[in-house]
Amino acid sequence: MNSTIELPLTSVTSSTRASRVASIDIFRGLTMTLMIFVNELAAVKGLPWWNYHAPAKVDAMTYVDMVFPAFLFILGMTIPIALEHRIRKNLSLPALSLHVILRTIALIVLGLILANAEVGSRSLMGIDPMLWTILALIGAVLYWNVYSRSERHKTLFLILRFSGLVLMVAMFAIFRRAMPDGHAAWISTSYPEILGLLGYTYFAVSILYIATRRWRWAPLAWFIAMTALCVASTAKWIPFPGHIPLYVWPFGNGAMASIALAGVVTSGIFVDSRSLRPTTLRQKSIAAISFGGITLLGGWLLTPLGISKIRATPTWCLYSIGCSVLLFTLLYWVCDVRRAVRWAAFTRPAGENTLLTYLLPDFYFFIASACGFTYFAEHANSGFAGVLRCMIFTALILALAALLTKWKLRLQI
Length: 413
Description:
By secondary structure, the protein is mainly α. The protein contains 15 helices and 2 strands. It has a two-stranded antiparallel ribbon. β1 and β2 form a beta hairpin. α3 packs antiparallel against α7 and α9 runs parallel beside α11. It is globular, with a radius of gyration of 21 Å.
């Protein structure tokens, strides 16, 4: 594993203690696998409603609506592990803050590439938008790939990394999109895609954690505060969260931050090496199950405010948190206590090399679009045949991720 462990899309197993928490990587791998499947499933027609995101105007949530919260929850779990690992290296506060900022920017940059992929104007850029995205992503891969520390190839690796940075900067420089009034515009920042949302949440929760890390009760207090913010915003008691962009107020309406902070709380129960209590598996399990049960109860009590991922309601947050806490507790018992991990071997590339695995379906989509390949959009796109196609596609992506990882292609930001 690699030494940087701070992001939801990188390995979290390089610190000595974290390396024993197999359940974190497996939870991440399972979530990544499900995300690939449901993203592909979104284009399949004729399936029951619960196989898709619930519409914004409907008070409901499906298992699909719980994939993104699971990423946020894992993000929260990795934050204290990663930051404490760096603090033990005697990293200064300015250096630690810069570390968080740079990784936040990296996630946002990747998110903006994906979010703007299909809105670029070929006539204004002089290049097909799909090709623009492929080149920008290749630049990202070259820049954020983990290269060997071998002195023999050090110059070559520096050239590759620098070339990736230049390619990304060039793609951002030439990007143009057409506005409804006919004017040209640059990158749209209105929606930074999932990676960008993870980046903003990572920044928001990290600064809270760094500022109050000496108080072990602080993550729970911040979780309650963010949940209260989400309640107040959803109930329209306070209007400002919905009118301030994330680059000014990264907490949003509190929904994403509350889910990530729940991950921080759970990490404190199972992983925190500073913890004096709970000390036994029984105490850890009781604490986690109690926390998960309380969040589920809280979600049920807040159902009058609605249930919706798209509206980011508190019930959606709390139900997702409760399920994530209980699932992780089970995985911890199976994978770290019972040492039963072979059953999850298929998730290993997605859990250890998550950022690359995340980008592979996008590479496929943009390359297929650039080549005009539309076979699967017109065939095997409904019913059981469509589900089978999505399962095969997911398996192929995992296999490709495993192969590329074996070939030393590993992304880390």
